[in-house]
Amino acid sequence: MVGGARRGAGVRAAVREGGTPGGARFALFAECLLTGVWVLIAALPLVTLLPAFAAGCGHLRRHLAGERCTRREFAAGLREAVRTGLGWSLLWWTGVALLTVDLWVAGSGALPGAVPMAAAAWAGLAVLAVTGLRTAAGREPGGSWARAAAGALRRTCVTDPGGSALLIGGLAVVAVAAGQQLPLAAPALGCLVACAVAVERRCEARVGQPDGP
């Protein structure tokens, strides 16, 4: 239990000194891989994907801050996120399902204008996916999911399109890894969690303060 705090303290000390020791980098990488396994297991019902991702992001933030970050803290964060965010996750999955149906209809050629319809559906899926990840990564425990989603949508489309592009790349890596070897989805997912945390921290540092809970 104390190990997580010590590893996080080492990362913080390295950042203050202007460099990250190899041991701290390896500890952070190992924490990302472990987080990916936990998030994958928690997201197996699919409807819990966003709460699981939020719990994983919270776990890595605690690790970086030098706070206690064990399996118990992850489980507690997951329970809170599922309790408060399951409805929002279901709404998000509904949007994904509707856009997927649009893609299927466009691909069938049953309607005129299939190409622009498919392009719009792909763009909508990209925005929805990134907004969902940024909502989960940016929301503070106990905060409003709706308010976090509004801020995430603004960052996705307006204030931080570069960060959104990074997350789209991360999603592509997860898809390719899972397509090559399904077990690789877990470490790839952990790296995506780390990417989301880094993107949000970068955005917060640029604007000076994060969106409120």
Strand content: under 5%
Helix content: over 70%
Order of helices and strands: HHHHHHHH
How many strand elements? 0
Oligomerization: single chain
Radius of gyration: 18 Å
* Gap from first CA to last CA: 28 Å
Mind summarizing the main beta sheet?
Answer: none
Class of secondary structure makeup: mainly alpha
Question: Mean of residue pLDDT?
Answer: 85
How many helical stretches? 8
**Could you list the spans in which at least 5 consecutive residues all have pLDDT below 50?**
1-20
Inertia-based shape = globular
Task: Explain what this protein looks like in three dimensions.
The chain is mainly alpha-helical and 213 residues long. Helix content is 81%, strand content 0%. The protein has helices at 2-16, 22-42, 49-64, 71-108, 114-138, 145-159, 161-180, 185-207. The longest helix is centred in the middle third of the chain and has 38 residues, at 71-108. It is globular and about 55 Å long. 37% of the residues are buried.
Topology overview:
Elements lengths: L1 H15 L5 H21 L6 H16 L6 H38 L5 H25 L6 H15 L1 H20 L4 H23 L6
Helix pairs in contact: 1-2, 2-3, 2-8, 3-4, 3-5, 3-8, 4-5, 5-6, 5-8, 7-8
Task: Describe, in short, the structure shown.
The chain is mostly helical and 213 residues long. It has eight helices and no strands.
